[in-house]
Amino acid sequence: MSFIYSSLKNLKDRARASVTIKTFNIVFFLALFLVIVLAIVIRLTPIINGNYLIKAFDPWIQYYNAEYLSTNSVFEYFNWLDIKSWFPEGVNRGALRPGLTFTVVGIYQIVNSIGIPISLYDICYFFPAIMGGASVYAIYLVGKEALDRRCGLVAAFFLAFNPGFMQRTTAGFFDNETIGVFATLMTFYFFIKTVRTGKIYHSILGGIFSGYLALSWGGYNFVFLILPIVCFIMILLKKYDSNLL
Predict the structure, then answer these.
(1) The domain containing residue 42 runs over which residues?
(2) The pTM is what?
(3) Does 15 have pLDDT greater than 50?
(4) Suppose 81 and one of 71, 90, 138, 154 were both cysteines; which one would form an S-S bond, judging by CB atoms 3.0 to 4.6 Å apart?
(5) Which residues are 92's β-sheet partners?
(6) pLDDT (tens digit per residue) in 29-58
């Protein structure tokens, strides 16, 4: 009889622990979801204020590039000598980083091909806010992989409401940083993941994101300098691992 009682008590304790863990997980992911949603909503506040304009000079040039690509071929884009911006010599627009331009035009063509009527301007306007939310999730992944998921949640919270980052990812501020920060964080995430697991597909994904970063943002130099410095420090600390290769 005591054996049956002990078994039932253990089963009850395990069930209670399981419910506690599940409740904690629900609360945790609800908090993460709320942080990401708030990050996006705050970046959409210019609409509430009635400001539906692309901001600053560079974002207008980015939109100008995207508009040209959407109405011309890729070959014409890379051979585009724009005399409207710099006369009479002109500016070789094809020499600019194409990552942002091709991303939004690709989205524009996909959503319109499946019957969703949305203008290129609308995509360019909302794109920074969406990427702001994506970057918040990306830094959660970095924090989770570097330490634990609580660290990731704290990092996500601080990035979501960081004034400098908010300014560069507010709706209408259509510039390279929208992709640059996201791709940087994903590069770091897969770098850490590769060092920890040694999985080849993690290193491939890290390479893809670092390439996407280089095509989209001039700040890629900082990332490409940080990674070898980290490797060098790990060697000095005698924590070198073949996965670093």
Answers:
(1) 2-175
(2) 0.88
(3) no
(4) 90
(5) 81
(6) 999 999 999 999 999 999 888 889 998 899
